[in-house]
Amino acid sequence: MFGRFKPLWGKKPQLKSSYDAVIIGGGLHGLATAYFLAKEHGMNNIAILEKRYIGFGGAGRNTAIVRANQRTQENVPLYKEALDLWPILTKELDYNLMFNNCGNLNLMHSEAAMNTARMNVCTAQFHGIKSHLLDAKQLKELEPAINISPDITYPIHGAMFHPPGGVVRHDAVVWGLAKGAARYGVHIHQQTEATAIHTKNGKITGVDTNRGRIHTPRVLVSAGGYSAGMINKMLGIRLPISVLTIQAMVTQPLKPVLNHVVSSGMYHAYANQTLKGEIATGAHMDPWPNYTTLTTAHYIKHQAEALSDFLPFLRGVKFMRTWAGLADMTPDMAPIIDGNDPIDGFYMNCGWGYFGFKSCTATGRYLAKFMAGGQCPDMLKPFTLRRYEKHRLMGETAALVSYSADN
Amino acid sequence: MNRLTKLPTLRIDPSENRSLQYKGQTYQGVAGDTVATALYANGVRVFARSLKYHRPRGLYSLDGECSNTCMQVDDIPNVRTENTLLKNGMQVKDQNVKGSAEFDWMGFMDKLDCLMPAGFYYRTMHKPASLWPIAMKQVRNAAGLGKIAPDFRMKGDYTEIYPRAAVCVIGGGAAGMTAALAAAESGLRVVLLDARPWLGGCFDYRVSAYDQEKALYQRARELAKAVEATPNIRVFKHTAVVGVYNNNLITAFQVGGESDSFNERYLEIRATSVVVATGCIERPLLFENNERPGIMQVGCAHRLARTYGLLPGNQAVFSIGHDLGLEAAADLFDLGLQIACVADIRADGQDPQLLLALTKRNIPFLRGWVACEAHGSRQVEKVTLSTIDGSAKRQFGCDLLVASAGLTPITGPLTLAQAKLKYDMHTGYFLPVDLPAKTHIAGRLTGLQHALAIEASGRLAGLNAAADCGFDTAKSAAEAGQQLNALPGPERGTRLVSAPVKGRKSFICFDEDTTLKNIKQAIEMGFDVPELIKRFTSAGTGPGQGGIPGHNLPLLVSEYQARTGAKPIPTTVRPPLVPTFIATYAGANHDMCKRTPLHDLQKKAGGVFRRMGVWRRARYFSEDFSCREEILNVRNNVGLLDASTLGKFRIHGPDALKALQRVYVSNMAKVAEGRVKYSAMCNDDGCVIDDGVVVKLAENDYYFTTSTGRAGETVEWIRFHTRYDGWDFHLVNLTDAMGVINISGPNACKVLAKVADTDLANEAFPFSSYREFTIRKKIPVRAMRLGFVGELSYELHADASYMPALWQIIEEAGQEFGIRNFGVEAQNVLRLEKCHIILGQESEQRTNLLDLGLGFLWHRNKPDAKTVGAVALRQTEKDPGRFRLVGFKMEDPQRPPRDGSIIVDQRIRGYVCTARKSFTLNESVGLALVDAELAALGTRLEIFEDECNGKRLDARIVPMPFYDPQGERMKM
Amino acid sequence: MALTISCPNCGKRNGYEFRYGGEDKGPRPAEEGLTPQSWCDYVHMNNCVAGIQKEWWCHKNGCGAWFTIFRNTLTNLEVEEPEAKL
Ligand SMILES: Cc1cc2nc3c(=O)[nH]c(=O)nc-3n(C[C@H](O)[C@H](O)[C@H](O)COP(=O)(O)OP(=O)(O)OC[C@H]3O[C@@H](n4cnc5c(N)ncnc54)[C@H](O)[C@@H]3O)c2cc1C
Ligand SMILES: [Zn+2]
């Protein structure tokens, strides 16, 4: 009934001295881009370089929340496409990505917040995406665990309900995409670290790794939280990014009790129940750059305080494990996706902060098109790096940028 | 079951009964019992069923490393009953069973393991896609252990404390206690933590000789007494460390005893130096059915008898790899246990004294043998032993199998503190290779077994920790070091993980039902590092985390990869080291927010409060949330608003003006005495971050206000943007020190004139000016004539302590005019009619000063001031593709769109910031941000509301403001 | 992780009392001659160093001072000013 146990993403390939494209970072975006390059553009002489093992970065640490109820029309269509792709990819990759479209509930703690949420709801509905505002009573009916009593720090006025969102199994996406890419001949090199990028006359010529030099006309940096530092160090291109540590945690496993992804901006917290029964929860970041991926005493306590307020039944549940990953934050909470500017053959896809899981498949697909044809597809144009010098921040966060990385 | 009630090592009080309810019956235990030991005393052997295969599970360790004894207690799921103290009346239930733990209808799952190889979820159930939602539901129901109700509320008291310590010692065994005593000699503040409800560690239950006179347990109690008698050692018992963070921050929680006021309390300890003396746990032995009830670890069997007075079985087989196993066998034999055989995986190296003890008792002993299969369906009945290479086998009947591969140190606190671990071939332990700064280790953790050596290492660590705190302990530390060196060093350990078996039912992780076979499958599939195997097979991700598989998994993996010469790589340990209640982490959970000085008065007046940022403010003064009466009263008469939350600041000193020029877009040199200047601050993208008024009190001495939301950051902001300049100015935040009352409406002057000691005539105190005077000869106020709501209006700023009196005076004076309160929402509508913006409501990240039509505030000719935002404003001035703020009127005057609705044609072209039915104008009006192309007067806007089903609302862009365009009413 | 920061006025304190204020980029440039690129570089762009960086902090819940420190972003520990490379 099962195939025997063969290596999921093929035998360890030899590192060749040249490839048509080199992708730095065996995370979500790198794997997805490679998969679509090979599958849809016939480019299968490509290599993914991963310094540790695939999924080592954000890919293996995120809480896998997916949704398409963003704030601006530049973002929503991309996320919608990504949301629609999960079932399709499950089939295509023949790997169960375990999409649980349980719906997202975004708690609102004031009349003003309800109004702010309305803009997202309208934007979603305008794009044919299900999203609604609920008052506190409707919310309670939908998710009885939520505390709508007025005597908590931030009483709940209602919620934004987004039925098609939910959670996907993050590891499955990594392994499934790796499996798919390897099937089309992509070389996945683990334990292989990119150490330099070479250019000549404004064109990419190659990549150095700890295992030797690779010649290539195309390089994509999609190294998650490590991208900005790497791009600056290797190419001298500075990015408007702050690399922060974001944390998440799970409780001990429970029988089904929480049926949606519940999140609250005010409390800086979200929670959902995984298929395994754990309550996965997270959100907060310490607002200073660091690459430690260490958790903090401050945060787990904060999280407990927040959950005690809006999901009080959880007080009788135990935290079991916390972890952290990197979030490369831009000032406008939208990624930087760009290519051939200022170096021909150089592509970057980073700044995904704590929200780059949900979009990885669609982004990878458009980016593959970009890399194969050299022309930026319309879908990706708004994400150009040059928006910052034009003072055209994206508006994915309504909040104003101040001088520090506090978004 | 008969208790051994006379043992001197007991930690129970057999004379005091405690009872619990289980399966509709009352079970008796005694004081000091855990829930599980009480149940064990009553003959319960199957405590739970495993997650996936519903295999019966029993008591295996007593320290909660796995979920074997997790039960539901008092409606709380996943309680580790083996180390939860029994309290009278506890309601105990089985979990994750259909039927009971003893007879579980789901037990057949155990036969289906072939359908569930490693990672089977990923490879099945998605075909056909239509079935996945149903399959998912089943997965959800099958997964999860305990059950909790969505309306469950935790009872009891949870608190927090933040002790400071010079030296924090983790682990209250012999090494930890000695370390604490040594550190305390210098008079330092020492904190000693132990997870068990008593001090003593692994000496506590052992009757072997410590020296000529004392047994180990006696020595432990002697040390404990000395510790408790030392005033500068603070002992926290029943306190598990859960986190260690850099700079020696330690978090832990303490379980309250029967006489404590708290159920649990969270501890956060900042220590200068830390000693980790956490000792060891046992390393599980892998063989077929290695987790059948009746199989337990050495310490578990030994402590059941010695600590709880419960002989763990009748007829036992031992399969062990450490001298502690031999010691336990001899001691348990003396307490009445029959022992069929002791198999030791070691070929040699046993303590001859212990071997002699076995011989004396006629206990059969096998060297180089190991348990390879346990038989019996619900409980162990028989054991097959084999030689290590599997060449010979023998069977023994038994009802107890004491099984353990060896020891493994508790290094969790060290790895959390970023110590790097390396596999040590001699001890077979993962040991730290470089310790973090000011961290020391001692005791069994380091591989020591000899009692005196354990203590010597503790003393050395304690003295070194004192040295970290600035004490010169070099001499005594050198002595302690010499003493330690003279004693036996770390002992050789075992490396064997598994008996010679295929491993289909050999469990490496009990919580997740991960078998040896699963691990092999994962490796074959390309998951070749422990971290990935863990993810793919779930081993070590269950309620007990790495407690059971943590040490064995890396050993196994490196064994499989022997050809690559891979060294075992430890798996990651993550906090909390012990699963911890969210209630405990939350602790006291204070809700902190600010109240204005007028809070109580507003409350009495019927204010409906809302939290706004750090404040609570009165948003409405009636149940009519349209605020019609409040609004009309301001328009036609006079209203009173508590505006105390406004940010209020004084800036003074030689460079005060320069600082203002830097952050405000206007020319602040033009602020004239006695006048009020309205201006804005931008960020470096030109976005408006704040607006407010500035008055000049004297040369280089200004008083200014900011919006409520910015008050907390204003000082930082100004200092930040002048940080390189070395300017000399003082900035004082007066927000909480002063309150603000706003009196607005055509009758405002009349009201104020009754109480103000000044001339309020228009000529004496015109619009947009500033005066200082007193109210009723007593209360000094700073008064501004402003017009945010569009009427004749005064803003009175006064010391917070005067505010209630001031309010009452004005209210009283206004009575004859029918003065009444208005709240934040009424103010919102009033200012909307005047098109005065509220930042954050009519502005966002994409809008700058110019987009909002506030360009008139910008003074472009002060480049030397390097005004924040000016560069961006200049660079975007001619950009046609931006948003513009516009005012609109609805075609249907009765129907304002809801705030946040979007403006569309083929695409989204903007959105409604605020829109209301204006009672004053009998129109529905609003402010919107739209693409500049659409901003011309008269343009028709299509508004797309949520749930509009494609039906759009029509509006038209009209001039701003809507109300009193000439602004005559403010200047009245 | 448990950050501590040394304030020049108040000494070594819990990191949560402070607010991070960005990489040290030097004083505000003169407005004359700024291009959108050079301005953007000053305002938004970061080095994102994985290692030691000089950076600004404000003792927000303390004395209110802005000051610079050197911190290793790989460990989150404050460090001494590194010696200038020759
Ligand atoms: C705790 C947490 C929770 C999150 N929750 C969510 C969520 O709920 N929903 C959501 O949408 N997003 C979430 N995210 C964000 C999401 O995980 C990231 O945005 C996403 O992983 C980014 O994907 P990536 O492929 O760009 O980078 P990554 O997945 O981080 O992969 C980058 C890879 O590059 C490798 N690499 C780095 N340097 C080199 C080098 N020099 N050579 C070779 N390889 C290198 C790294 O080892 C890594 O494997 C969360 C993130 C975290 C940390
Ligand atoms: Zn200070």
Provide the gyration radius of chain B in Å: 38 Å
Mean pLDDT of chain B: 95
Number of domains of chain B: 7
- CATH evolutionary superfamily of the largest domain in chain B: FAD/NAD(P)-binding domain
The strands making up the biggest β-sheet of chain A line up spatially as 5-6-4-14-15-16-13-17
Q: What amount of the residues of chain B lies in strands?
A: 25-35%
Number of H/I helices of chain A: 8
CATH topology of the largest domain in chain B: FAD/NAD(P)-binding domain
User: Architecture of the largest domain in chain B in CATH?
Assistant: 3-Layer(bba) Sandwich
Approximate helicity band of chain A: 25-40%
Tell me what the structure shows.
The complex is a heterotrimer of chains A (407), B (972) and C (86). Chain A has 407 residues and is α/β, with parallel strands linked by helices. Chain A folds into two domains: 21-62 and 171-241 and 332-387, FAD/NAD(P)-binding domain (3-Layer(bba) Sandwich), CATH 3.50.50.60; 104-163 and 242-329, D-Amino Acid Oxidase, Chain A, domain 2, CATH 3.30.9. Helix content of chain A is 26%, strand content 24%. Chain A is built from eight helices and 19 strands. In chain A, helix 1 (28-41) runs parallel beside helix 5 (170-183) and helix 1 crosses helix 8 (360-373). Chain A is globular. The termini of chain A are far apart. With 972 residues, chain B is α+β, with helices and mostly antiparallel strands. Chain B has seven domains: 13-115, Ubiquitin-like (UB roll), CATH 3.10.20; 158-281 and 409-486, FAD/NAD(P)-binding domain; 287-404, 3-Layer(bba) Sandwich (FAD/NAD(P)-binding domain), CATH 3.50.50; 507-572, no CATH class; 599-644 and 737-830, Gyrase A, domain 2 (2-Layer Sandwich), CATH 3.30.1360.120; 647-733, 2-Layer Sandwich (Alpha-Beta Plaits), CATH 3.30.70.1400; 880-971, Aminomethyltransferase beta-barrel domains (Elongation Factor Tu (Ef-tu), domain 3, Beta Barrel). Helix content of chain B is 22%, strand content 28%. Chain B has 23 helices and 49 strands. In chain B, the strands form twelve sheets. In chain B, strands 8, 9, 10, 11, 12, 13, 14 and 27 form an eight-stranded mixed sheet that branches. In chain B, strands 40-41-42-39-33-43 form a six-stranded mixed sheet, sandwiched between helices. A six-stranded antiparallel barrel of chain B has the order 44-47-46-45-48-49. The radius of gyration of chain B is 38 Å and the shape is elongated. The mean pLDDT of chain C is 93. In chain C, strand 5 and strand 6 form a beta hairpin. Chain C starts with a strand and ends in a 7-residue tail after the last strand. Chain C has 86 residues and is mainly beta. The interface between A and B is large, with 100 and 114 residues. Bound molecules: flavin-adenine dinucleotide and zinc ion. Flavin-adenine dinucleotide binds next to helix 1, strand 13 and strand 17 of chain A.
